[in-house]
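Checklist before submission:
- one chain only
- standard amino acids only
- sequence pasted in full

Submission:
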Amino acid sequence: MARTRRRTRTLDPSFKRILCISAHPDDNEFTIAGSAAAWAREGREVTFCLVTSGGAGTNEHTRDHTGLVPIRERESWDAAKILGVKDLVFLGYEDGALEPTLAMRRDLTRVIRRCRPDVVVSGDPTVRWYGSEYLNHPDHRAVASAALDAVFPSAETRAIFRELLDEGFEPHKVKQVLMTGSLQPDTWFDIGDTLALKCAALHAHVSQVGPGKWIDGMLRAWARRDGKRAGVKYAEAFRRFVLDRG
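Returned file contents:
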């Protein structure tokens, strides 16, 4: 058990800025919101970058997409307030039609150079499905792929996207990447103190989850599963990449 417990992490105290990149307004709340809330509580600057505003998020709770974008953006701000996340960036791409294009990589490179994060959090572009019950959304894979390419080499290389220099965005080297949704996690963060905030933040996405009576049980089950591997009650799992050991 002691060996397992050493897998849990806290971020380096010198890491002050964290950028979390996702495709849709509720993606972070489903996945990394417990960690994000903990980082915000520690006084770190957490930014959520949402590549779409969720305009295709119709379901049994919201059957018509008319006027959905401003609703989902408002829900995103409501959720962010619960978590202590003070900055949201909406890139405005079309929901459900994402590809990891050079244009998307350029836009994410711009966000990274503007925010200058120590840590970037994003998904795993290699995972096509989870078990036999969930096919990973193509938007998730597209954004994750573009985000990793933006981190390296684009954000730190002066000769890539030189037009960003004209806009005043100097190169920036990200120190670490935390990849959520990996089938090979190696890092876990204890979210025992912030799981309730994660649940509340996901409840804020009313257009997607409705009354959401199932939310708390589902998120607690996921956190308990990851916590078991980490030797704590509740955790979130990541694969960590250390890009700068200086």
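Reviewer check: Residues 1-6 have pLDDT under 50 and may be disordered.
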